[in-house]
Amino acid sequence: MEWKYQTIQRDGFDFLIAQNKTIGPNLYWLGSALYYPRVIPEEMASQYHITVVDHRGFANRIDPTSENESTYDLDLVLDDFYFFQNQLEIPACTILGHSGHGYMALTYAKKYPNSVNTLVMVATGPNHGVPLLERETYFVSFATEERKEKHRQLQNKFQNLIESHPEGLPNFFNLFCVSQDALGFYDLKMDSTHLWDGVRTNKLAFDYLFGKVFVEINVENYLSTLKLPIQLILGKYDFQVAPYYTWDTIIERFPGVKRTVLDQCGHLPFFEDPIRFMQVLDSE
């Protein structure tokens, strides 16, 4: 699939934007405009007109002044997305957030309800706080010995990289994500190194948003106000975020949230089982 890239400058950042050329329903995808087109399957790209936008954690910061946590305030991130949607003349459409970006999609749908007609959260846990602690228990009880051994090998390799760079490991975030492959992919042969090639990250953005804001986020406060279809698509073999069953009590209180767990998928179900993922997405 061919993607068209452009850069939009805003508030001290250069944001990368990726769009495919398919004529179809709009799909507004939040995250990294360099990473996600590499994992979006042909089955989706041939059916939807997809726009993938950077958030401040991935954008190139060009402001010479010092950054701080307020630089990455969630409301500012949401305002960026709203600006891009209007700048690119994207009508109200399906918005998709994967992993921690699911919280961005959720909060965006609340702040700008007239810009969203369907919310899709993929591989997103209830939050990055207490529910996330359950993933270790789930991994110990459910993962095969082969998967556990692969994870040990990847962790040892990552630790050796850290120790060999006492001044700080370049591309720490990217290499950390690769070290999680046994937790994130159903296929144990998967090596995600190439998917992260060239992807830049702003460490403070992830430390603040993913390490603080999304630890404390209460998804129920948002779900209770939304009046639109909501899809929650999870992988049974996803050991990177809170397990699928940590949503049980929330789903009981919000029957309008349609949860689907894909059996032979990890953290990227759209990448590992695109046909089944599209069946779920199109069933709304």
Distance separating the two termini: 25 Å
- What would the principal axes of the Cα set say about the shape? globular
Average pLDDT score: 96
Residue fraction in strands? 15-25%
- How many individual β-strands? 9
Give the low-confidence spans: none
Radius of gyration: 18 Å
Quick overview of this protein structure:
The chain has 284 residues and is α/β, with parallel strands linked by helices.
SSE arrangement:
Blueprint: E1 3-10, E2 13-20, E3 26-31, H1 42-45, E4 49-54, E5 60-61, H2 74-87, E6 93-98, H3 101-111, E7 116-122, H4 130-142, H5 145-163, H6 172-179, H7 181-184, H8 203-216, H9 219-223, E8 230-235, H10 248-253, E9 257-262, H11 269-272, H12 274-281
Parallel strand pairs: 3-4, 3-6, 6-7, 7-8, 8-9
Antiparallel strand pairs: 1-2, 2-4, 2-5
Folded structure, characterized:
By secondary structure, the chain is of the alpha/beta class. 39% of the residues lie in helices and 19% in strands. The protein has 12 helices and 9 strands. The chain has helices at 42-45, 74-87, 101-111, 130-142, 145-163, 172-179, 181-184, 203-216, 219-223, 248-253, 269-272, 274-281; strands at 3-10, 13-20, 26-31, 49-54, 60-61, 93-98, 116-122, 230-235, 257-262. Strands 1, 2, 3, 4, 5, 6, 7, 8 and 9 form a 9-stranded mixed beta sheet that branches. β6, α3 and β7 (116-122) form a beta-alpha-beta unit. α2 packs across α3 and α5 runs antiparallel to α6 (172-179). It starts with a strand and ends with a helix. 38% of the residues are buried.
